[in-house]
Specification:
CATH class: Alpha Beta
CATH topology: Nucleotidyltransferase, domain 5
Shape: globular
Helix content: 40-55%
Largest sheet: 6 strands, mixed
Strand order of the largest sheet: 5-4-1-2-3-6
Oligomer: single chain
Number of strands: 6
Number of helices: 8
Radius of gyration: 17 Å
């Protein structure tokens, strides 16, 4: 399995979103995206922010179609930042940067754990802009999922650039994550709003808004929509 990891947030930083695209060994999503490129003549990064023209929408909707047809699946955790108490993640004498880094790692673990419990020797690839600087993010994730003497969940962990064609499935992860953020913060661009609506239709959910997901637990959300799920973390449930 290959796991692509990304994160996103709105301009006001009201929401922090963690997203992971899981590609089982049976997945051919990379090849499918190559087919989309060949058939449309698209050579740029196919990311959510790029979906702002009719051509961009046409290409992005094709990528959504290929994601739906493939064995890959997507998971997202949304963490509302309003009155978020980072002090819960450390000691009073620790800096805000350390507390945020620890929270970042913890929510990443929460996103990954239910989906890799039976996985061995997978590959974890995070967007190169995705981490708290100086926190040794990949090392901490490796320690969590590759305990000494225990099951090795990830045989390889790395930060990669989505600009590199070999890692273009990270672009698909960005597109899917951007659609969730768009539902929380719609834009003035009709094509960005349209690709979000198209994805909702394809995964057969009314929306990606809290009212459609917030009353479900993490496992229930995953079972309700195996292909694409969103889980809204509630502030009263502080991670241990």
């Amino acid at each position: 399995m290959i796991v692509y990891f990304d994160e996103s947030y709105d301009n006001a930083h009201d929401y922090l979103l963690y997203g992971a695209l899981f590609l089982p060994d049976s997945s051919t999503l990379h090849r499918r995206i190559e087919d989309v490129r060949r058939e449309t003549g698209c050579e740029v990064e196919i990311k959510y922010t790029w979906c702002k023209t009719a051509f961009g929408y046409r290409v992005c909707s094709r990528v959504v179609d290929e994601f739906i047809a493939d064995s890959a699946y997507f998971r997202c955790v949304v963490v509302p930042q309003h009155k978020f108490d980072y002090s819960r993640f450390g000691r009073p004498d620790e800096s805000a940067a350390i507390l945020k880094a620890r929270a970042y790692k913890k929510f990443t673990e929460m996103l990954l754990h239910p989906n890799v419990m039976q996985v061995k020797d997978a590959v974890f690839l995070a967007d190169e802009l995705t981490r708290c600087r100086g926190d040794e993010f990949l090392e901490r994730i490796s320690e969590r999922f590759n305990p000494p003497g225990g099951k090795r969940t990830f045989r390889h962990l790395a930060e990669v650039s989505s600009k590199i064609r070999s890692y273009q499935c990270l672009q698909a992860c960005d597109l899917l994550l951007g659609c969730v953020l768009n539902n929380l913060r719609p834009t003035a661009n009709k094509y960005k709003n349209q690709i979000r609506k198209y994805l909702c239709e394809k995964v057969d959910v009314p929306s990606f808004l809290p009212k459609a997901w917030e009353h479900a637990g993490l496992r229930e959300v995953r079972n309700r929509c195996p292909k694409f799920s969103v889980w809204y973390w509630r502030a009263k449930k502080w991670p241990g």
